[in-house]
Design a protein that fits this description.
The protein is an alpha/beta fold. Helix content is about 15%, strand content about 30%.
Length: about 200
C-alpha cells in the first residue's frame, strides 16, 4: 500500500467501509454532541467548545477559539495551538491530522481538506495527507487548502485562494492556483518592517 493510502487498498468500489465501525460511531456521536451542545453557542463560550473538542480527542489549547458553526470531521485528528482561531463556517475535513500553530487564523468559510482519491486506481482508494498551518499564518475567507499542504509561519492565503502546494513563510499568496504576491510586513515597535527571512 502506497504512503497515505487508507483502507488497505480496498477503495470506494471494494465493497467495504473505508473506516472502522468504531471510527464511524465516534464521529457520529461527536456530530450529535456538537449540534446539541456547541453549534448554537455564542463566541464568548469558546472554552466550553474547546472542552467538547478535547473530550473527543482534540489537542487544543484552552486559549484557542473555535466558532460553533465550524464543521469538524474528526476532532481526534485536530491540533490547535495557543490563540489559534477557527472562524465561522470553516470546514475542517480532518481525515488526516490538521495542525494549527500559535495564533494561526482560519477565517470564515475556509476549507481545510486532508482527503482525496487515487484517480489512477480502479478502486479509487482514499488518500489522506496531513495539513499544517504555521504560527501566525492566516487562511483568509473561503480559501481552500488541499491535502499535504504545509503553510509556513506567517504566510497568508488570500480570500478564495486555493493551494495544493506548500506556502513559504511570511509570504502573501492569492489566486487559483495560489501564487506569491509579496513578502508580509510586521509591526515592530509601531513601525512597519519586512518580516524575517524564512
Amino acid at each position: 500500500m502506497r504512503p497515505g493510502l487508507q483502507n488497505g487498498g480496498r477503495g470506494v468500489f471494494g465493497g467495504q467501509p473505508t473506516f472502522t465501525l468504531r471510527n464511524r460511531l465516534g464521529r457520529a456521536l461527536f456530530q450529535v454532541v456538537w449540534l446539541l451542545l456547541a453549534r448554537w453557542t455564542p463566541p464568548p463560550m469558546r472554552r466550553w467548545r474547546i472542552a467538547i473538542l478535547r473530550a473527543f480527542g482534540a489537542k487544543a489549547d484552552w486559549s484557542a477559539q473555535v466558532y460553533g458553526s465550524a464543521r469538524i470531521w474528526h476532532p481526534a485528528l485536530l491540533e490547535l495551538g495557543a490563540e489559534a482561531v477557527v472562524g465561522p463556517g470553516v470546514v475542517i475535513y480532518c481525515m488526516d491530522r490538521i495542525t494549527l500553530g500559535r495564533r494561526a487564523v482560519v477565517s470564515q468559510g475556509a476549507h481545510l481538506c486532508t482527503g482525496t482519491h487515487d484517480i489512477d486506481s480502479v478502486d479509487f482508494e482514499l488518500v489522506t495527507r496531513p495539513i499544517t498551518i504555521g504560527d501566525h499564518a492566516w487562511i483568509c475567507a473561503e480559501a481552500f487548502v488541499g491535502p499535504g499542504v504545509a503553510v509556513g509561519e506567517g504566510a497568508v492565503l488570500g480570500a478564495r485562494g486555493i493551494s495544493f502546494s506548500p506556502l513559504a513563510p511570511w509570504t502573501v499568496y492569492s489566486g487559483n492556483p495560489a501564487v506569491p504576491r509579496r513578502r508580509r510586513y510586521q509591526d515592530v515597535n509601531g513601525a512597519r518592517a519586512w518580516a524575517r527571512e524564512p
